[in-house]
């Protein structure tokens, strides 16, 4: 049946009934009545209602679609930049707050806030208005950024990072959901690719902005910069109508049954498990010995809570915090696992390469950001390249395997860095890792989108985004624990007379003032060795991502999607879809 065009007002049209056999398969779309401000943008575009044999849905086109994509892409850009912007500011922050042992928390607090809430975001977008839910998350992100900029203590900075992370938890998932609601499936990949490409620019711009502000003014503007840029994101989304693609109950009715719709009990069981695990990783080998009762108790508490949550989640089924049907889908589960491990490898370099350049090479914060360019620019180029190659090749695992292998090798080569490492080596190794990272960013999302029915896409994407946060959250703390414990053990080997705790507490740049000229070369070797040990762990995580890539589905994605009620197996055959 050819597409039908409709120019009716979305505010005046509550739903559209189809006749005949078509109505049996149609999905009725209820449009939320938008405030009158939506009329400001009515002349920007025409709304297209695309009618297929399976459903009738309202989509967006023209300038209005362009503004939506730019706004959500910029929002993703800010969330990614907020992760990388701190990398070049960390050494100065540790100097100001005398908080080298908190380095892991500056990244993990952000990811912890995101990881704790991400499983809920898919359900929130399924039950509440898409646009306003997104804007609430974005406001929380902006509030956290303001708190970080105003922080007077390391603890306040960590709290601000956690609040910003809570906001970020719904931004990436919400951006993909908004694009999916605005664009038909067959036209979606270029827009999602553009969103991911723009967001990855945050990794390029972030270290440079952080370095520039830290060197020329203050690291606080690394966070304040999000406020004016946030206005550019919010204004178009406030005035533009975004269509709802599934029927939703009234907000009041959802609020009355909030505990059932969002599984708040599951969330109350799940979040403490993650927090206790991170505390155990952070404290072990730093504040307390690994065999101490405090650390062992936290590990046991995390494990016990996780077991209770797992039984509860299974009892709730698809109404649980993480829908069981999503976990049972092999491609969804393994792609999420691959992405969590892969992003943990990426963040290892983002956080510790600047420490190498500033602490050992004695470069400024802004130069350490510039020195990351050999890693980040290839990411951008190969991310764009994969958007072209994947539809032609048709298979995802070859790209994911190449990405994980190359990234793991590059990270392992980082583990050879010493004070006298040549420029050619640290540039070449970063290029190698950057190429691999660019090939891997899109693969899990493409795999999931080709394995998931549209009505489950928001929840499947939320599982992927959750893995993106929880993987780095756990491993960044593990990296920092290994780094600081290695530093404490390496310093006495190379400089027996040095004050180990004073050097560790001084920060990544001010420790030079505490050691004599005779001991400095030995301390630099100890610092380099500690960073090397950490990068060997990063490489090991990359190997795990490589193994997970084998399970991401070998079906040719160029094949016609399966009919409703079926799912495509790896060989292209159709089988009944899982519940």
From TrEMBL:
Region feature Disordered, mapped onto this chain: 1-20
Membrane topology of the entry: Multi-pass membrane protein
GO CC field: plasma membrane
Signal sequence region: none
Coiled-coil residues: none
Pfam families named among the record's database cross-references: MFS_1 (PF07690)
Keyword rRNA-binding in record: no
SUPFAM superfamilies: MFS general substrate transporter (SSF103473)
Stretches with biased composition (Basic and acidic residues): 1-11
Membrane spanning residue stretches: 65-91, 103-120, 132-152, 158-179, 221-240, 261-283, 295-312, 332-353, 365-389, 396-414, 426-448, 460-479, 534-554
Top-level taxon: Eukaryota
Subcellular location: Membrane
Domain Major facilitator superfamily (MFS) profile: 68-557
Assigned protein family: Belongs to the major facilitator superfamily. TCR/Tet family.
Full protein name: MFS multidrug transporter
Organism: Colletotrichum chrysophilum
């Amino acid at each position: 049946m050819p597409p039908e065009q409709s120019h009716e007002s979305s505010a005046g049209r509550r739903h559209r009934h189809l006749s005949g056999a078509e109505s049996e398969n149609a999905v009725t779309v209820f449009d939320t009545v938008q405030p009158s401000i939506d009329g400001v943008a009515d002349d920007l575009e025409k709304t297209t209602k695309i009618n297929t044999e399976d459903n009738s849905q309202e989509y967006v086109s023209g300038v209005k679609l362009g503004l939506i994509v730019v706004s959500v892409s910029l929002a993703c850009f800010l969330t990614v930049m907020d992760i990388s912007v701190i990398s070049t500011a960390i050494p100065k922050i540790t100097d100001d707050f005398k908080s080298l042992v908190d380095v892991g928390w500056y990244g993990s607090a952000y990811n912890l806030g995101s990881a704790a809430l991400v499983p809920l975001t898919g359900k929130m977008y399924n039950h509440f208005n898409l646009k306003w839910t997104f804007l609430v998350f974005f406001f929380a992100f902006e509030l956290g950024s303001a708190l970080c900029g105003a922080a007077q203590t390391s603890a306040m900075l960590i709290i601000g990072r956690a609040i910003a992370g809570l906001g970020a938890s719904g931004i990436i998932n919400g951006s993909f959901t908004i694009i999916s609601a605005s664009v038909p499936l067959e036209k979606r990949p270029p827009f999602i690719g553009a969103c991911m490409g723009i967001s990855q620019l945050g990794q390029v711009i972030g270290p440079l902005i952080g370095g520039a502000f830290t060197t020329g003014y203050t690291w606080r503007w690394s966070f304040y910069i999000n406020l004016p840029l946030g206005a550019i994101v919010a204004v178009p989304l406030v005035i533009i109508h975004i269509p709802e693609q599934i029927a939703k109950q009234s907000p009041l009715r959802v609020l009355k049954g909030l505990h059932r719709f969002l599984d708040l009990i599951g969330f109350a069981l799940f979040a403490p498990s993650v927090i206790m695990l991170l505390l155990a990783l952070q404290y072990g080998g730093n504040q307390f010995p690994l065999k101490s009762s405090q650390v062992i108790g936290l590990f046991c508490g995390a494990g016990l809570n996780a077991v209770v949550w797992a039984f509860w989640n299974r009892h709730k089924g698809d109404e649980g915090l993480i829908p069981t049907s999503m976990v049972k889908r092999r491609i969804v589960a393994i792609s999420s696992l691959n992405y969590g491990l892969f992003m943990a490898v990426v963040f290892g370099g983002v956080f510790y390469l600047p420490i190498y350049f500033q602490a050992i090479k004695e470069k400024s914060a802004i130069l350490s950001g510039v020195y990351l360019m050999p890693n980040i620019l290839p990411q951008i180029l190969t991310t764009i390249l994969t958007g072209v190659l994947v539809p032609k090749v048709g298979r995802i695992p070859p790209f994911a395997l190449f990405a994980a292998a190359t990234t793991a090798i590059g990270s392992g080569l980082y583990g050879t860095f010493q004070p006298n490492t040549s420029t050619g080596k640290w540039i070449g190794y970063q290029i190698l890792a950057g190429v691999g990272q660019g090939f891997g960013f899109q693969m899990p999302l493409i795999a999931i989108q080709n394995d998931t029915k549209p009505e489950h896409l928001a929840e499947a994407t939320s599982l992927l985004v959750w893995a993106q946060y929880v993987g780095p959250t756990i491993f960044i703390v593990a990296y920092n624990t290994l780094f600081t414990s290695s530093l404490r053990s390496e310093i006495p080997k190379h400089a027996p007379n040095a004050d180990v705790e004073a050097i560790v507490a001084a920060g990544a740049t001010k420790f030079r003032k505490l050691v004599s000229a005779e001991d400095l070369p030995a301390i630099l070797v100890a610092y380099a060795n500690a960073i090397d040990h950490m990068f060997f762990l990063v490489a090991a995580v990359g190997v795990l991502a490589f193994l997970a890539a084998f399970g991401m589905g070998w079906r040719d994605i160029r094949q016609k999607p399966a009919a409703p009620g079926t799912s495509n197996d790896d060989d292209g055959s159709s089988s009944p879809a899982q519940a």
